[in-house]
Amino acid sequence: MSQPQFDSIQLAEQIARHEPWLNAVRTEVGNVVVGQEILIDRLMIGLLTNGHVLLEGVPGLAKTLTVNALAGAMTADFSRIQFTPDLLPADLIGTLIFNPQTNEFSPKLGPVFANLILADEINRAPAKVQSALLEAMQEKQVTIGDQTYKLPDPFLVLATMNPIDQEGTYTLPEAQLDRFLLKVVVDYPTMEEERLILDRMASSVAVTATRPVVEPKTVIAGRQLVDMVYVDDGVKDYIVRLIHTTRYPESINPALTSMIRSGSSPRGTINLTMAAKANAFLKGRGYVVPQDIKDLAYDVLRHRILLSYEAEAEEVTSEQIIASILEKTPVP
C-alpha cells in the first residue's frame, strides 16, 4: 500500500479534535455497561456512517442496555419499540386520524420519527411491519396516506435479535438484512467482567442511565470527516477482491463453492469501505489500513453471505467462510 497523502495527515489533526467527545461517549456508556468495547465501537461506527446495526445475542447480554446508554449520551430523540407478532405498521410509522370537527384527516406520526430507534426483538414482527421499517431504513422517509414525511437526521435503527428462541419469530428478509451496515454478534462477558457486573449491578439502585455529552450536530460533523478519510487504491482493490470472492469462492477454495448460495451484493463493498473509514476515524487516523478491513469484515459480511443447505447440514458458519476468505486473499 502506498503512503497516505499529506492532506490525510492534516485530516488526522482535524480528527483529533473529535477525540474528546468520542472518549466522553465511551466513558459515559462504560459507566453503565461493563465490557462490550467492541459492541460500543460498532454502534459508534453506525452513528458515524449513518448505517443501521443489527445486534444478535442471547438474552441478558446488555444489548438493550447498551443502546439505551448510547442514546442517553446524546441530546437526541430516542424511541424504543418492542416488536411483537401483533404489531401493526401504524404502530411503527403512524396513521391518519379523522377529526369530526373539521371533517378532515390529520397525520399522527409514530415512534419511528426519532434520531435513534431501538427495534427490540425485531424478528418477532410480521412481514407488513418489516416492509414499513424497510422504507424508513433505506429511504429515510415514511409514507402515511398520500403524504411522504422525511425522518430526522441522524436516523439510526439499532435492532436486537435473539438467535435461540424460534417460537413466535419471523425470518428477516434478505433485502432487509442487507440494509443493516453491520450485524454484530454479542458474546458472553469474561469472568473478570462478569464479576464487575455482579459488583455494579446486583442492587435495586443500579446505575442504568447516562447523561448527554454530545449533540447530533457534532456527530454529523464527525460523519463529514469520516467521508474524507483516505482509502488507497490498493486497499480499494483488496475490498473488491474480498467481496468478489464471496460470490466466486472457487478462486481460493473449490470446496466453498457448494457452501455459498449467494455472496455479498455491491452494498457490501460500499459498507465495508464506509465502516473501515469510521474505524480509522475512531483510531485517530486519516487513512484506512488493511487491518481496518479485517476488523470489520465479519460484521459487514456475516449477514450478506447466504449459506447453502449443504453448509447448514455440515454446520459450516458464515464466520468460517469469511475467515477462509481473509486467510487466502492477498493483503496489499
What does this structure look like?
With 332 residues, the protein is α/β, with parallel strands linked by helices. It has a domain at 35-215: Rossmann fold (3-Layer(aba) Sandwich). The protein is built from 14 helices and 11 strands. The strands form 4 sheets. It has a 5-stranded parallel β-sheet. A hairpin with a 2-residue loop joins strand 6 and strand 7. The termini are close together.
In what order do the strands lie side by side in the largest sheet? 2-5-8-1-9
Give the end-to-end Cα distance, rounded to a whole number of Å.
5 Å
Broad CATH class of the domain at 35-215: Alpha Beta
Helix content: 40-55%
Note the quaternary state here.
single chain
- What integer value in Å does the Rg equal? 21 Å
Query: Tell me about the biggest sheet?
Result: 5 strands, parallel
- The CATH architecture assignment of the domain at 35-215 turns out to be 3-Layer(aba) Sandwich
CATH superfamily of the domain at 35-215: P-loop containing nucleotide triphosphate hydrolases
Q: What overall form do the CA principal axes indicate?
A: globular
Strand content: 15-25%
Average pLDDT works out at 85
Secondary structural class? alpha/beta
CATH topology of the domain at 35-215: Rossmann fold
The helix-strand sequence is: HHHEHEHEEEHEEEHEHHHEHHEHH
In DSSP terms (H or I, runs of 4 or more residues), the helix count works out at: 14
Number of strands: 11
In terms of per-residue confidence, which ranges show pLDDT below 50 for 5 or more consecutive residues?
Answer: 1-6
